[in-house]
Amino acid sequence: MEYAIVDIETTGGHASANGITEIAILLHDGEQITGRYETLINPHQLIPRYVEALTGITNEMVAEAPSFETVAPHIFNLLQGRIFIAHNVNFDYSFVKYHLQRCGFDLNVPKLCTVRMSRRVFPGYDSYSLGKLCAALGIRISGRHRAGGDASATVLLWEKILAEGGMSTVKDYLKRGSGDQSFPIYLDSEQIHSLPRKPGVYYFLNEKKEVIYVGKARDLRQRVTSHFTNNKPGRQKQEFLRNIHQIKYVPVPSEIMAFLLEEAEIKRLWPRYNRSQKRPAPRMGLFAYEDGRGYMRLAIERMTRGRIPIYSFGQQTEGRDILHHLVQQYQLCPQLNHLSACPSGTTGCSCQLSPEEYNDKVIDAVNSLKQSLPSFAVIEEVEDDYPYVRHWNPPIIRKKSEGLFDDITPAYYSVKPSRKIGRHAAFRSCILIEDGAFYGMGYIPDSIPRDLNTLKQYLVPYPDNDYLRGLVTRYAIQHPELVEHF
Asked: DSSP string of 12-40?
């Protein structure tokens, strides 16, 4: 096998908006260096002052250097057919591939990361940055933060890896189907390989152990791995990958529970990178009040703290549809209910009734709406090999400032645990809708009575919103055999 050990200096952290200012490529046959190429490159954009201070490469130094387009054919020929090696390979590879592509060259070669290989061959070090790792291993770097100096140090590190029996690691990483080299640089690949092939919710944590992304999966390992198969050169993707240091997860026995838990957790944690799902909770409700003349009125209004609506919804149009139906069915006055003027002035309209007579009609309408709101549970069998039910304490009911995960179960922590299920008891998963609102979910023993009050003793409550409610309702319609009504 032939290798190309690469280091670059750039104007910034992601390829799509930044240029390469210097590149060094050292060819290696597994025993010694067989070729060397090194050059400054004019990025045709200003080098930021902090980059100048770090690398020592100034705008004046690159002013007369060749552009990347000029050296691209030679760089492509050096890399093509060889294994691309770098310290934090995804960074260097994303820049080189992106800029070669802009010049009409499609680089598609295997890659190896000396950070990831060092973690396996030299475990236990506090830091695997090139400078600190080389210092710990006795490798002297001449020309730190310059492409030639860092590439030469990476060669020495690479040779130490091979001398310590690292060839088996190399073959393991290069085998077909291994995506380890695409994983985030600070993430231990064992965290991914140990993920179960089950439905669940996963959490990406940053260096401070803060949750930065929450996702759902039908297959946890496959879905998490898919985040890293596309190494886009844009700022958002590169920043996202650099910030992932740890993975935690909550396995659940069904995909619908994964949907529900993901949505609830995004609303609670508000993770930095869950942009598309940061929908506000429902803020509209149907309220009843009495006006100055003693007439009860129904109105669609914004939800406020302390006010309990007759019914809540995510969109005002949904509320108006319900109100229109009640007005028509119970012959209420549309004007009193903020919908429209009386059909033909006030003559013959129910607003001509006495307040007592009219209010009886409104009370009947409200009671019919409440009675029409369903209460039901979706109850499913749980596979015998599902191991986490005994400790079902989802994090949604804990305070946000408290710890999210413990060692007994991958991602469960609760201030007020739900009832424990006996070690040998048969159990099922349960999702509960009460009076048209999403109550919560969890697990129930087979032996308990199936009534609302008993089920609620075992389930963990979650904040209701129209999205969660809709998910459960649609699932219940699709799987009527799983539904028990109350």
From this structure: SS-GGG--EEEEEEEEE-SSSEEEEEEEE
From 372, 389, 412, give the residue that closes a domain: 372
- In angstroms, the CA 52 to CA 42 distance is 14
Classify the C-alpha dihedral 159-165-168-169 as positive or negative.
Answer: negative
160 neighbors 134 (Cβ within 8 angstroms): no
Same domain, 150 and 217: no
Q: Which residues pair with 298 in a beta bridge?
A: 288
pLDDT in tens, 168-184: 878 877 775 556 777 88
Tell me: pLDDT of 279 over 80. no
Domain containing residue 83:
3-179
Q: What average pLDDT score do residues 338-350 get? A: 78
- In this structure, the number of other CB atoms found within 10 A of the CB of residue 134 comes to 20
Structure confidence at residue 386 (pLDDT) = 58
Amino acid (one-letter) located at 138:
G
pLDDT tens digits, 396-423 = 334 433 344 444 333 333 333 445 555 5
User: Which strand ranges, in their side-by-side order, compose the sheet holding 311-313?
Assistant: 296-302, 284-290, 311-313
List, as own/partner pairs, every contact residues 307-310 make where C-beta atoms lie below 8 angstroms and the sequence separation is at least 24, other chains included. Answer: 309/285, 310/285, 310/286, 310/366, 310/369, 310/370
Tokens of 6: 């690469």
Which two three-digit tokens encode residue 135?
A: 């210092």
User: Considering just the CA atoms, what is the radius of gyration of the chain in Å?
Assistant: 31
pLDDT confidence of residue 428: 85
Bridge partners (DSSP) listed for residue 337? none
Mean pLDDT of the chain: 84
pTM of the predicted protein model: 0.67
pLDDT surpassing 70 at residue 239: yes
Q: Return the number of other C-beta atoms located less than 10 Å from residue 372's C-beta.
A: 12
Please tell me whether residues 18 and 159 are part of one structural domain: yes
Buried b (16+ CB within 10 A) or exposed e, 319-330: bbebbeebbeeb
Q: What is the tens place of the pLDDT at every residue in 283-323?
A: 788 899 999 999 999 999 888 777 778 887 767 887 888 89
Question: Is 443 a member of any domain?
Answer: yes
Those residues whose C-beta lies under 8 Å from the C-beta of residue 480, and which sit 6 or more positions away, are none
Whose tokens are 């760089």? That residue is: 75
